[in-house]
Amino acid sequence: MKKIAACYIRVSTDDQLELSPDSQLLEIRKYADANGYYIPEEYVFKDEGISGRTAKKRPEFNRMISVAKSKPKPFDALLLWKFSRFARNRTDAVVYKNLLRNQCGIDVISISENIGEDKGTSVILEAMFEAMDEYYSINLSTEVKRSMQLKAERGEPICKAPFGYKNENKAYVIDEDQAQAVRMMFDLYESGVGLKTIAVKLGDMGVRTPRGNLPDNRWVEYVLTNPVYIGKIRWTADGRESNKKRYKDCDFNVSQGKHEPIISEEQFNHVAGLLSEQKKKYAKYQREESGNSWMLRGLVRCSSCGATLIRCGLSSKYPFLQCHKYNRGQCRVSHYISEQKINRLVISQIERAAVGLDFELVPSSGGEIRQRGTATLRKMIEAEKRKLIKVRDAYEAGVDTLAEYQENKQRIRDSIASLEAQLNTASEPFDKKKFAQKLTDVLDVVRNPTVEPSAKNNALRSVVHEIVYEKAKGEIRILFYA
User: Fold this and answer.
1) What ranges do the domains of the chain cover?
2) 3-class secondary structure, 113
3) Annotation: CATH topology of 165-281
4) Count of H helices and E strands in the chain?
């Protein structure tokens, strides 16, 4: 009787010399037939176009490992075209092979690399293959970076065309419709129009970013600082083109490109100078990272677009809140309000709700939210229980130490206990007086000047779903969790 086997197939975009997925499967099935194995369709796992340098980003590999850990074991062997298909990282190779062989009782076999029957010799040969595979991966990465650097130095494109251009015959060619928008951005900014105003104007005209989003001030700034529009290529030291997320890195190079410029170098330099002057002029008003250091962080929303209000003007004496999409030019209505004022509004409204027993519950009625709330809590509890299994598997696979496992296990158990307590409370009939007392307890925390803002924020989050600020009326609307 034939033994059950699974097969894992992987081809990345860099593996130009490897067999195609279909060819690998054909060879594996031939081996299985000749060696007494049967491979059911449900045990054929394929990752296509994915690197083997890490297991985290390979969905079929992870599904295969999950299936292999089932009890009783679903198959007796895992067949590979080459060990490099399993992993190009020695750490992953050792951890997952050990898990399959020693914990699951499943052999891992390369059908094209004969490592012999002798256990001592096979261990040495397999370790050599793993080292060679990792070396190949590291060396290939180096070669790819070098190749991209050479292309950039020659002025050739190394990524998809930026806004204003299109790729034709491996070159940037002007897209006249988009190029008009690029010229308009430079002209407007040069004439004194701000980034946000430009973004709003472009959005009203129907212009969209390459990802299909409304333009915002950051995207406009990125366009205005990209030397591609004067016929150059900007790229980083690791060989990749300097994209929107990386263009402010100091470690980048600029090469003369082979494409036609959209604007003049004189205008580009003039705009660059204006941008630099503007940043220096208004540096103290720039948004700073505030962490959890303010009471209403993440709770207040814009009544126009639903976006979160962020804390601005931290360097000034009176910080204020503003819709973050308005700041970027994507929302048309300002929701400016001083931090002191909205703090007073929130405290006052919670006080009135507690005294008058008048609560607006999410979404509108207590019964509906309670049903949704308990269902959500049960799902969260199940998710935490699945985490317990994962941390145990990580410990058994040798990924986590015993101390790490114990720490993670206790943390998850504490979370489960807290969620179960909430579930028990949520299952009780809604008691307005009891909830009013809960609000009073929260207010005691919020009004205490010795309590850290982050602790006040956590206290509010235990009862407040969201706070909607309606600028036109000068009012707030608080939606509570029951």
Assistant:
1) 3-144, 165-281
2) coil
3) Hect, E3 ligase catalytic domain fold (3.90.1750)
4) 15, 15
Nearest to 82 by CA among 2, 3, 12, 4: 12
Backbone phi, psi, residue 338, to 5°: -70, 150
DSSP 285: G
Query: For tokens 């000749």, what's the residue?
Result: 34
Domain 3-144 is found in CATH 3.40.50.1390: yes
Q: Residue 218: CB partners within 8 Å, gap ≥ 6?
A: 244, 328
Q: What is the mean pLDDT of residues 168-195?
A: 90
Question: Which region among 37-46, 65-74, 149-158, 275-284 has the lowest average model confidence (pLDDT)?
Answer: 149-158
Look up the pTM and report it.
Answer: 0.45
Name the packing angle between helices 176-190 and 195-204 (round to 10°).
Answer: 150
**β-strand partners of 167:** 172
Least trusted range by pLDDT, from 70-84, 154-168, 261-275, 287-301:
287-301
- Number of neighbouring beta carbons within 10 Å of residue 187: 14
Separation of alpha carbons 73 and 43, rounded Å: 12
Cα 138 from Cα 428, distance rounded (Å): 59
First to last CA, the chain: 61
